[in-house]
Write a structure and sequence with these properties.
This protein is an alpha/beta fold and about 180 residues long. Helices cover about 20% and strands about 30% of the residues. The structure holds inosinic acid and magnesium ion.
Length: about 180
Amino acid sequence: MNQLPRPQVLLSADRIKERLTTLAGQINQHYAGREILLVSILDGALIFTADLLRLLNLPTQLDCMRISSYGNSTSAESAPRITGSLKSDLSGRDVLLVDDILDTGKTMQRATEEISTLGPKSLRTCVFLDKPDRRANGFEADWSGFTIADEFVVGYGLDYAGRYRELPYLGVLPKSSPQPSL
Ligand code: IMP
Ligand code: MG
């Protein structure tokens, strides 16, 4: 097996945990006394969702959707496609949509449009990372863990060509390794 370049640590596991505790506190406060339906966008948001979920002290149901933006390569398709849909009835529910990263914003835009057609009582969004420099549509999340510069990041659920999702920290690939063009 080829040796993969080791990413440089951008956010340590401890720093992520600390920030998630604060973020979850804000979400708990916002929804106090209510039950939420957390919708996670697979695969990237899997780790963030699992950690955030365990810090929420609200009755929570979980559903997942899959949205493909890049196919098998890293070149962006213009409109993300929903490739795996929800199993829950969203009507009248307080929905919290969770993703790994807000980049161009196209994925979240597509997901919120879809969810809005399903009649939720409320819809809010939470992302682990925000890369505002890349935004193509002005989309803003209600809650975001960290704002980062325009660099391709991996780990903590985020991948490069399917790799690195398992890293407990968020890292940046060394400049010498091939960078994906998004
Ligand atoms: P969008 O451009 O906001 O639609 O983001 C599309 C998707 O691209 C995100 O949900 C991530 O899965 C992925 N993505 C964007 N930036 C990065 C990155 O720096 N590392 C890994 N995945 C990324
Ligand atoms: Mg994603």
